[in-house]
Amino acid sequence: MIFASSSALAAQPASTKEQVLTLYNHGKELLDAGKTAEACQAFEAAKRLDFTALNLILRLGDCYERLGRTASAYSQYQQAVSLAAAAKDARQSTAEERVVAVEPHLARLVVALAPGAVGVTVRRNGEALAADRLGKPEPVDPGRYTFEAAAPGKKAWTTARDVVAGSTIAVDVPALEPVASAAPIAAPITPDASSSPRRAIGISLLGVGLAGLGVGAAFGVRALSKLAGSKANGHCDAQSFCDDAGFQLRSDAQDAATVSTVTLALGAAATVAGAVLWITAPSSAKAPPRAPTSSSAPSLSRLRAGATGDAHGAGIWLQGAF
Hints:
Layout: H1 6-10, H2 14-32, H3 36-49, H4 54-66, H5 70-87, H6 92-102, E1 107-113, E2 121-124, E3 127-128, E4 138-140, E5 143-150, E6 157-163, E7 168-173, H7 197-231, H8 244-280, E8 302-310, E9 313-321
Helix pairs in contact: 2-3, 3-4, 4-5, 5-6, 7-8
């Protein structure tokens, strides 16, 4: 039985081809014996070794479909259509027929944020959802799903939904409530009467800069970890051809790298600005006495600053009361 194009097979070591064939045939035997879940595991193991074999992908889609995992089956059939079209393989029509047959039975989830929500991270069964996946119907396998939403300084929100085949479920994430006792990243600075507001702002910016550099370094380590994970266990090959897990790991690594770059840049800028303000501030010994509190002259009574970063963005903030 032919698994893929001759060029794809020729590129594989003989031992790999033998493993794929063994796993494929074992999966068929398990499927014929009614052991569908075990058969799917065998086909999955074979696909990790060769994710371009059309017969294998079609067989895995059929296995998922028998388990009721309609979205997983739909994804395999779509992959088969793409591969067959690229190779001008006659099995393209078979794959397209399977796509059309499964589509009416798909379950879909639509996760939407409340208007004005900023910096909110939404997770579905523990997996963070990228911003471009929000507000759009997404095929999912039937089952129970839990949803969590979190943002800096906000109370976490969670809910659960049961999804059945052929249904479309909307999950609306509400505006998150603020945490009453949320503490700022940097402690409030209350300059005394002899200190310079410019120096106080400079010290705060230095704190923000250091916090930003720390956040950037942490996301840099995360990006390297995700990239290394995508190369492990054969998720991505040397030509950056990845399976589903490898593609997600590469996407997560790119997000973390972007946040790291932005946060490091912001942190460096804040550090330099803070140092300049602190150095150029007038000495408290030379500063003229401040007017009493009853005077109309403004005074800096409180200053707060901080840095934030997540998979969708990063930033620094500075707040003062005069």
